[in-house]
């Protein structure tokens, strides 16, 4: 079922979201300061391309203050538009019963886009 959901996701827009994150990642990695943010965008691109069967978890040995500081910078610099986009798409998918699993994936991406530092992606 995960594979079928991922195929439908990719065909109906997931590939465009992943490409968008990938292009953003390349743009962020142009400067040395932007490299950590570009790596987080790559993490988002990975989940955006094939979201079913993946889970976002908090890293156990937390990086503490640095992770918190990077999440605050991420939130104010670029996280808000990404979060609002996933929120809008998630709510639109929730209009139909068939779209609820896809809305859930957008809410998972929204949660990751809100605070990507200190989190990791695991397969279920």
TrEMBL record:
The keyword DNA repair does not apply. The chain crosses the membrane at residues 7-35, 72-100. Pfam families: YccF (PF03733). GO terms for cellular component: plasma membrane. Keywords: Membrane, Transmembrane, Transmembrane helix. InterPro entries: Inner_membrane_protein, UCP028777, YccF. The keyword Disulfide bond does not apply. NCBIfam families: PRK11770.1-2. This is Inner membrane component domain-containing protein. It comes from Proteiniphilum saccharofermentans. The lineage of its organism: Bacteria, Pseudomonadati, Bacteroidota, Bacteroidia, Bacteroidales.
